[in-house]
Design goal:
about 70 residues; 4 strands; globular; binds zinc ion
């Protein structure tokens, strides 16, 4: 299990990136929303889409869920 967060700020393509808590690219506390604990990035991204339709896994920590 890992803790997952989504970035409140959009990236270049309008994506809101989903990160594990240990990721070096984890946004600052004021720039992230806590999603919960999940076994993998898949359900974390699904949860993130409740906040931001265009959510995407971080290429670094959640590459299995990174598209585009
Ligand atoms: Zn990440």
């Amino acid at each position: 299990m890992a803790l997952y967060y989504v970035n409140k700020n959009e990236q270049d393509h309008g994506d809101h990136e989903v990160h594990e808590w240990r990721c070096e690219w984890l946004p600052l506390e004021e720039n992230r929303i806590y999603l919960g604990q999940f076994d993998s990035c898949g359900p974390a991204v699904s949860k993130a889409k409740e906040y931001y339709e265009q959510s995407n896994g971080c290429a670094h920590c959640s590459s299995a869920c990174h598209t585009g």
